[in-house]
Amino acid sequence: MSKKIGILTGGGDAPGLNQVIRAAVYRGVKTYGYEFVGILDGWKGLMECKTMPLTLDDVYELSHEGGTILGSSRTNPYKREDGPKLCKECFEKLGLDAIIALGGDDTIGVAYKLFTQEGIPTVCAPKTIDNDISGTDQCFGFDTAINRVMEAFDRLRTTAKSHHRIMVVEVMGRHAGWMTLIGGVAGGADIVLVPEEPVDIDEVALKLKKMRDKGRKYAMVAVSEGVKIKFAGGMEDIITQDAEVDEFGHVRLGGIGKILAKELQKRTGWEARHVVLGHLQRGGVPTAFDRWLSTRFGIAAVDQIANDNYGVMVVLKGFEIVSVSMEEAAKGIRMVPKELINIARILEP
Predict the structure, then answer these.
(1) In this structure, what is the dihedral angle of CA atoms 223, 13, 135, 315, given to the nearest 10 degrees?
(2) Which stretches of the chain are DSSP H helices?
(3) Does position 9 have pLDDT exceeding 80, yes or no?
(4) 218: pLDDT confidence band, cut at 50, 70 and 90?
(5) Is the pTM of this model over 0.85?
(6) Which terminus of the chain is more exposed, N or C, with fewer CB under 10 A?
(7) C-alpha span between 17 and 246 (Å, rounded)
(8) Does 130 qualify as catalytic in the annotation?
């Protein structure tokens, strides 16, 4: 039976979104004879019923493009007046049979609510450069992001070495340290600081002093934007850009790199600079791995719809693509385990 499927991308953009869209349309049209509609700007587009066509011609050249042709937003229908109702009305107006939602835990959380509370059939694929969605071994977008981090360290090392400085590199990832750990280790960072372990600046300064005493002329420090800093009196806190929160209750993190560089210079007497990688980690074309993983996710998502299996998320388990309940994504973010953090500790000078 032919079906009409809507696809949307929510939350922060990530490399691989266009490849999921492309693969889903190819699978649906060529294998099942399905029709596809692109929903613009995430859940905002479903509330406002803004769409674009998604034919084979529309997705043909998406094999290499970063970002998302559908646009994205951090809109939460459950924080808007009549939001869920508007979503349901648009779903019915468009004559859709299902929605494929590509996003992180917030986007997936909304999809699950619309499925269980409004009866909208949904299937999700886990997208986030933070790699912190529970239920999957890896999210698409992550591999590209950690390669951006690694490349940044490769470039920054030459200037740190030339000027005999400490270079502090602030990495995205919110409250999980996957990007900082793997990108930092791959890039040869001397010290890696992640949210899973509160940071004592005095301890970090002591490590740097010992490095300098051994003759090291420069140092590279990787720090997650969501790291908790230990302040005087034992207090721990994260650094935020402002006090505002989005519709999912998230504050804007950022600024830890600048503070850490200043404090380390004061404590060590070693000149320090900071770099905030920011959205450079999101941008650009996806790696081969992310293109491949995204393609597999897109095909698998359509296969779930063909089998009328809704309320699920397609995930990577080992080398296999399987489906799990969207409830898995609601269990909380997937943190970096201690044994992996210890790898960075082993490699400290």
Answers:
(1) -130
(2) 17-27, 43-48, 56-59, 83-93, 105-118, 142-163, 178-186, 201-213, 256-268, 288-306, 338-346
(3) yes
(4) very high
(5) yes
(6) N
(7) 22
(8) yes
CA distances from 11 to 17, 33, 72, 107, 108 (A): 11, 29, 6, 7, 10
pLDDT tens for each residue of 67-112: 999 999 999 999 888 999 999 999 999 999 999 999 998 899 999 9
Tell me the HSE value of 166 on the side-chain side, using a 13 A CA sphere: 29
Task: State the catalytic residue, choosing from 13, 41, 106, 130.
Answer: 130
Q: Are 223 and 50 in contact (CB under 8 A)?
A: no
Residue 12 pLDDT class (50, 70, 90 cuts): confident
**Tens digit of pLDDT for each residue in 106-134?**
899 999 999 999 999 999 999 999 999 99
At 328, list the tokens.
């898995």
SS3 content of the chain, % helix, strand, coil (to 5): 45, 20, 35
Do the Cβ atoms of 313 and 136 come closer than 8 Å?
Answer: yes
Query: Residue 19 has which token pair?
Result: 């490849």
| 121 close to 115: Cβ distance less than 8 angstroms | yes
In the block, residue with structure tokens 């992180």: 104
Identify whether the C-beta of residue 133 lies closer than 8 Å to the C-beta of residue 238: no
AA identity, residue 309: N
- 295 close to 286: Cβ distance less than 8 angstroms: no
Torsion angle, alpha carbons of 53, 54, 60, 64, to 10: 100
Strands 251-253 and 240-245 come out as: antiparallel
Q: Are strands 191-193 and 236-237 parallel, antiparallel or unpaired?
A: unpaired
